Amino acid sequence: MAFYGRQWRERGAEFSETVKLVALAGRYAFEEGHGSYYGMARNLVFELRKAYDAALSAYDVLVMPTVPFTAQEIPPPDAPLDVYLATALSMIGNTAPFDASGHPACSVPTALVDGLPAGLMIIGKHFDDETVLRVAHTYEQAVGGFPAPPALTTASTGSSA
Question: Which residue from 62, 64, 66 is spatially nearest to 116, judged by alpha carbons?
Answer without folding.
Answer: 66
